[in-house]
Specification:
Blueprint (H helix, E strand, L loop, with lengths): L3 E5 L3 H12 L3 E5 L10 E2 L2 H6 L5 E4 L6 H10 L5 E4 L17 E4 L7 H10 L6 E7 L25 H4 L2 H10 L2 E9 L11 E8 L2 E9 L6 E8 L2 E6 L4 E4 L2 E4 L6 H12 L7 H20 L3 E2 L4
Parallel strand pairs: 1-2, 1-4, 2-3, 4-5, 5-6, 7-10
Antiparallel strand pairs: 7-11, 8-9, 8-15, 9-10, 11-12, 12-13, 13-14
Length: 308
């Protein structure tokens, strides 16, 4: 069944969501201040779009600092369809608005990346001894043809910075190894790739199912790197999210994936009510972890999680 979908924000990620939803056979309208939408119906504001009639599925893909206001507007206008908010959910911790959405999620699509799914299945909720998650890519390579310093990623006020842009790894750490219990961190703006946003972090977590989870996140690596290494029960598990492979004690297995596979799977799961989508509560937990990481770095001490 074809659904009536709305993508709010038409930057690179909004355009990608629009294309993915059309691949799934749905009709897509756009909210864009620029008034351009590649021949899709376009509205200048969310209010104007909602005045045109109800939507079955809304994707919020504007700058991070605008996510909360858009989500509140949808709730107040009585939207009853599905909602997906691009990651991170908010720029800073805030209460979730009361709503009647049929389904709601945060856009952590890497949960649906084939090698990550395989790792999640292999872990099966068991304990690991150590885990290391590494993600890095030179910010100038993110959006070819654009000056990196003109993008929201380079601006702290817009909600950019490596810690928020690369928060997939924070979501994956808690999805794979359970809720975080305490955190220590070093990081900030260490190079000149951004205007004033952070560009590199080293983070140490204790999680419910792993006593030592380390994360390295940056805008600096050339070439890009994204991988997860887990030590568990005498085995070493390595998952390479760029090469689409994983290995157990050096024995490698590859996965056939397409560029939009994880996005397609995420939208299907949300719309069909399947398990695995990061909910709004999961997204908020990651925002709270980001705030704790910044506090840990600022104060030079471990930060304990306030609630289990």
């Amino acid at each position: 069944m074809s659904l009536r979908c709305l993508v709010v924000g038409y930057g690179s990620i909004g355009a990608r969501h629009a294309a993915v939803l059309e691949k799934l056979g749905h009709g897509v309208s756009i909210v864009s201040r620029r008034g351009t939408s590649d021949n899709r119906p376009v509205f200048r504001t969310l209010a104007a779009a909602l005045d045109s009639g109800a939507f079955d599925h809304v994707v919020i893909a504007v700058e991070t600092v605008e996510h909360l206001a858009m989500l509140i507007e949808l709730a107040l206008r009585g939207h009853r369809g599905a909602v997906l908010v691009e990651k991170p959910l908010f720029a800073a911790p805030a209460p979730l608005p009361r709503h009647n959405f049929s389904a709601a999620g945060t856009g952590y699509n890497l949960r649906f990346h084939a090698p990550v799914q395989a790792l999640h299945a292999e872990l099966g909720g068991r304990h690991a001894e150590t885990a290391t998650l590494y993600v890095g890519q030179w910010l100038g390579d993110w959006r070819p043809g654009r000056d990196a310093t003109t993008t929201y990623s380079a601006s702290r006020a817009a909600g950019g910075g490596a810690l928020r842009d690369l928060s997939h790894e924070l979501d994956l750490a808690t999805w794979l190894f359970g809720p975080w219990q305490r955190v220590a961190a070093l990081g900030g703006r260490l190079a000149n790739v951004t205007v004033d946003a952070d560009d590199a972090w080293s983070i140490l977590l204790t999680c419910a199912r792993c006593p030592m989870v380390s994360l390295q996140m940056n805008y600096l690596d050339q070439p890009a790197r994204r991988d997860i290494t887990v030590q568990m029960a005498g085995q070493t598990l390595v998952t390479d999210l760029i090469a689409n492979s994983r290995s157990r004690d050096g024995k490698k297995e590859g996965f056939a994936t397409e560029r939009d596979s994880s996005y397609l799977a995420m939208h299907r799961a949300l719309l069909e009510g399947s398990r695995g989508v990061a909910g709004l509560e999961d997204g908020l937990a990651t925002v709270e972890l980001i705030a704790a990481i910044e506090q840990a770095a600022r104060e030079g001490r471990w930060i304990e999680r306030k609630s289990a």
